[in-house]
Structures are given as structure tokens and as C-alpha cells.
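**Paired protein data**
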Amino acid sequence: MKKIIIVALTKDGKMGYQGQMPWNLPEELQLFKKITTGNTVIMGRNTWETIGKVLPNRKNIVVTSSQIENRKVIVASNFQEALKIADKFGKDIFFIGGEQIYQQALNFADEIFISWIKKDYPADLYFPKIDWHCWEKYYEHYYNSFIHSRYHRK
């Protein structure tokens, strides 16, 4: 059971603009779905609200202090509680955003899956700084509009 950050970024770390992803790349979304299906996803409240629905065929855990009116979502009051809940499912755990979840996940993740978006986009939200000395690339695949890279902790 691995703990994996999965994110789409521009080369300079841009990941959001005005509460949304600044790009619309169906091929990248299909890859995200293929990778995360059958596993557990942990997200923050803003990511939950942006997605707007339960991700099917995945255990959905939302870290929030608020109530969520959806029985198919598991609510955790903090990051540590989300990890404890996710561990019980015995599946890989994917951290899918947002910024605060990614910041905390960098301390726990075994791997990082990044779809590097080739074009530049406007952004007001950036991925937290990664200490690349701690990570080693072990996989890369080229798509039309992005490069999917995978890194494991050294």
C-alpha cells in the first residue's frame, strides 16, 4: 500500500487559477481516472467543491471541519485522521489536492506522479516547493499535451 501524490502542473509549478484547473485536457483526466480507480483518494474541501461529485469506484476522503451532505464521502477533521481512515482500506492512497493537502502529503508520500503540462497558463495557485534531492524519476511517458513522470523517494 503506497501513499502517492498525483498532480498536474506546468513546468513552473502552476496548478490552479480562480478555483479551477486552468486547462481542460481530457487525456490527462482519463489518465488520472485510470490510475486512481479502485484506490483511496484524499482531498481538501476546496478540491471536493471543485470536483463537485464523488469520484466513482474510489474511496473518497475529504479533509474538512465542515459537514458534507453526501453519504458516499468520508469526512476527516484533519490530515492525520484521513491517513488513519485510508490505511484501513488497504489500497493505495492518492493525495489529489489542494495546496494544503499536497503540502502535508510531501512529508508522507512514497511517490509523486506529475503530469507536466506543456503549455503555459495563468495561475494564482502553485504546488508547494519540492526538495528534488529526495526524489528520483523512475518513469516517464509522453502525451500530446503533457508528460507524465513518476518519482519515488530516494
